[in-house]
Amino acid sequence: MPDPTSAAAHLFGERIRDERLRLGLSQDEVAHLAGMNVSNYGKIERGIGNPVLHTIVRLAVVLGVDPAVLVTGLGADHLPPVLEAFTAADYVAERRARLSS
Questions:
Q1: CA 58, CA 36: separation in Å to the nearest integer?
Q2: How much is the pTM?
């Protein structure tokens, strides 16, 4: 699981905060509208929380934006490094190579 202090978490939190401020809402108001504890919402906004998909969608709905707005451009380079990372294509190719040997 990604480290909640990743660049992805920070960028997501900044985007949430920017949308909240654009609407002139407080953290408490957004948390209440999203059915969340304000403490948990604050962690997400500060980039130290790692929200699940349902929370991301719920926040997008409350803020009146498409969830894609909040995650566009986030990729593997925004996540903490892993020792070994394979794509599904890498895995399939390796499996085929081993089966044909």
A1: 10
A2: 0.75
Q: Does domain 7-100 have CATH number 1.20.120.1810?
A: no
Digit-coded pLDDT (tens) for 28-81: 999 999 999 999 999 999 999 989 999 999 999 999 999 999 999 998 888 877
pLDDT at 77: 86
Query: Are 58 and 35 a contacting pair, CB within 8 Å?
Result: yes
Rounded-to-integer distance, Cα 52 and Cα 66, Å = 16
CA distances from 92 to 1, 6, 12, 87, 96 (A): 23, 29, 32, 9, 6
Going from N- to C-terminal start, the domains of the chain cover 7-100
Question: How far is Cα 17 from Cα 55, in angstroms, rounded to an integer?
Answer: 15
